[in-house]
Design a protein that fits this description.
mainly alpha, Non-ribosomal Peptide Synthetase Peptidyl Carrier Protein, Chain A
Length: 90
Amino acid sequence: MNSSTESISDQLAELLTQYLKQNWVKSPLSNKLITASTNMVTELQLDSFQVMEYMLEVEDHFDITVDLESLSNIHTIEDLAGVVAAAHQE
């Protein structure tokens, strides 16, 4: 992971942490430490609605659009960071 992707991963982890704390307060996962290797589905057990809400926040924060094809290949924060970095290069 290069420094740009690492920086994006850190921002994404912080966004997800805040999203969980603000929207899913009663979930035990709202206090989980989120890192680049965190799997959003298997570790955090986010459902499709939660993933889409989070993706909207990511798109707004980074001023990008994540296409559905890319979305289907995103499992970890690091995967998402790669997509965000690629979108910034376009």
